[in-house]
Design goal:
The complex is a heterodimer of chains A (302) and B (266). By secondary structure, chain A is mainly α. Chain A has one domain: MetI-like (MetI-like fold), CATH 1.10.3720.10. Chain A is built from twelve helices and no strands. The longest helix of chain A is centred in the first third of the chain and has 37 residues. The radius of gyration of chain A is 25 Å and the shape is globular. Chain B is an all-alpha fold. Chain B has a single domain, classed as MetI-like fold (Orthogonal Bundle), CATH 1.10.3720. The chains are: A mainly alpha (302), B mainly alpha (266). The interface between A and B is large, with 79 and 83 residues.
């Protein structure tokens, strides 16, 4: 009877866990392995790939090669683009943190019945189409927009030449912040909501002013939320290509744009795979660092 | 109101304004009687009329709807199973496979699927490849929602069902499924919106034959911006808004029902 139960449980486990496991092995693990393999192949003459085996006599090159990796490390340009993407991602994360923190704090301190509504109001714009949210900034930052006229009028008073807001690094940054802000608010709020208000009362009784109370109580306690929010913003920004493509100028190329070009533009698949693998490694190290820091922050408190 | 509260409130109001003003402008200009998104000229519905006469856009909307229905159906099925399996059994591989696609930059999934479809499956890119790709990243979202619901539940309900002689299937059908239903529905609605909105993964797994909504919007933004984009944007916002309200209502009603049942049990 017991044995049969164990058998039933095994069968149930197989039936419930098996199909999603199989699906993801085929459509997530296998494609990732294929990408690693592709990074070691020769590009085809007209895009795509050269064969691995020499059976096709017309093909000049065949087999496996570390050429695409060598190419990546031989040109400083690619390191620069990676660096630029890291700078944009860090700046976006910092701005999101500064904008999200007061809001998350306010929501956490509001009356319980208002909290869900206030969180919903943060998530709601996020539910509208991603491209539409970028497009909105095309309108706002466009050369004929009210904001552009206003800023250039002020600059004109000081005798400064008019600026174009759209198709600039500034526009890319605004778009990145706008698209990713909710990712920062939610983990911060989840963390801040759990804080015990009596800690702040105790600090006040001990004579700490509101600034001291924030830096010595609230901020250190919120570090796990800060790190997970930062990872949730930093990682997608690192791989983003649509925002620079729509709001940026020709010089505002990030890793994502480079990868996109290898697959849909110049069609150099091996090099595109190398770039994607480098991006994956960057993402993994960022995620690892964030996990380590938030564990460290939590451990220090205990 | 204390001084620090005033600071918090003003910062929060500014952030909310930052979130909503851009979208409000998009909606406003969809009714503007001017080709330029620059200044208000007068009220018109002509951009909506142009939209409904744009056969390619209508075809794109239809294709995107088909993709979203298929992808959210399969993602809900597989994601619910994954959520159940991860909660119930100590698995090591499945959680990694389910949650990684959610956390990765989308471009990586798009590119690796592109390579896989073309090299291994020899598939002509189109609706099918998009449906598969969308299912792959939606599974994780459904699993997260379903698992969260399961985590909040009292395990003794399932033990009681087993003690009363219910088979695993009966326990699932009569106890587990009704209890997780709100999460399953929420997961389905979430997958639907994710699928219909997704641009990046669609961009890499699309074919040349069928127009797809986000791709059409992208082309319009890149090539020729007219307030028709604002009109389609407004309609899409309306659709998502309705879906979110429906999901919220379902969730609220379900939790109210669970609560009243618990009350009755006492």
């Amino acid at each position: 009877m017991i044995k049969e139960g164990a058998k039933d449980a095994r069968l149930a486990r197989f039936l419930v866990g098996g199909p999603p496991l199989l699906f993801l092995l085929i459509f997530f693990v296998a494609p990732s392995l294929i990408m690693i393999l592709t990074s070691f192949r020769f590009p085809g003459e007209f895009g795509g790939l050269a064969p691995v085996t020499p059976e096709d006599t017309a093909a000049g090159e065949y087999g496996l090669t570390p050429e695409a990796y060598q190419f990546f490390f031989s040109d400083i340009l690619y390191a620069e683009i990676f660096l630029k993407s890291f700078v944009i991602a860090s700046t976006t994360t910092l701005i999101c943190l500064i904008m999200a923190y007061p809001l998350a704090m306010l929501i956490a301190r509001s009356k319980k019945r208002f909290r869900n509504l206030m969180v919903l109001l943060v998530v709601l714009p996020f539910a509208s189409n991603f491209l539409i949210r970028i497009y909105a900034w095309m309108i706002i930052l466009g050369p004929e927009s009210g904001l552009s006229h206003f800023i250039n009028a002020i600059l004109g008073v000081f005798g400064i030449a008019p600026v174009t807001l759209l198709f600039s690094p500034f526009a890319v940054l605004v778009g990145m912040v706008y698209v990713h802000l909710p990712f920062m608010v939610l983990p911060l709020y989840t963390n801040l909501e759990k804080h015990d208000p009596s800690l702040l009362d105790a600090a006040q009784d001990l004579g700490a002013n509101s600034w001291q109370r924030f830096w010595s109580v609230t901020w250190p306690l919120s570090l796990p939320g800060v790190f997970s929010g930062s990872a949730l913003v930093f990682i997608p920004v690192l791989g983003m290509f649509a925002v620079p493509e729509i709001l940026g100028g020709t010089g505002d190329i990030l890793i994502g744009n480079l990868i996109k070009d290898q697959f849909l533009g110049t069609r150099d698949w091996p090099f595109g795979s190398v770039l994607s693998i480098m991006l994956t490694l960057a993402v993994l190290s960022v995620a690892g660092l964030a996990t380590w820091f938030s564990r460290f922050a939590a451990g220090q408190r205990a | 109101m204390s001084r620090s509260n005033i600071w918090l409130w003003s910062a929060a109001v500014l952030t909310y304004a930052f979130l909503y003003i851009p979208l409000a402008i998009v909606v406003l200009y969809s009714f503007n009687d001017s080709r330029l998104n620059a200044e208000w000229v007068g009220f018109t519905l002509s951009w909506y009329k142009a939209l409904f006469n744009n056969t390619e856009m209508l075809a794109a909307a239809r294709n995107s709807l088909i993709i979203a229905v298929c992808a959210s159906f399969s993602a809900t099925l597989l994601g619910t199973m994954a959520g159940l399996a991860i909660h119930r059994y100590k698995l090591r591989v499945l959680p990694v496979l389910v949650f990684t696609p959610v956390a990765m930059p989308e471009i990586l999934l798009g590119v690796s699927l592109l390579l896989f479809f073309l090299q291994v499956l020899n598939l002509t890119l189109g609706m099918v490849s998009i449906i598969i790709a969308h299912t792959t990243f939606c599974i994780g979202f459904v699993a997260i929602i379903v698992r969260a619901r399961l985590q909040g539940m009292d395990e003794s309900i399932f033990e009681a069902a087993r003690d009363l002689g219910a088979s695993p299937w009966q326990t699932f059908r009569l106890v587990t499924l009704p209890l997780i239903m709100p999460a399953v529905v929420a997961g389905a609605l979430m997958s639907f919106t994710l699928s219909i909105d997704d641009f990046v993964i669609t961009f890499f797994t699309k074919g040349v034959g069928e127009p797809i909504l986000p791709i059409q919007i992208y082309t319009m933004i890149k090539v020729a911006v007219t307030p028709e984009v604002n009109a389609i944007s407004t309609l899409l916002m309306l659709l998502t808004l309705v879906m979110i309200i429906v999901a919220f209502q379902l969730e609220a009603r379900a939790s109210a029902r669970t609560m009243s049942r618990n009350e009755a049990g006492k």
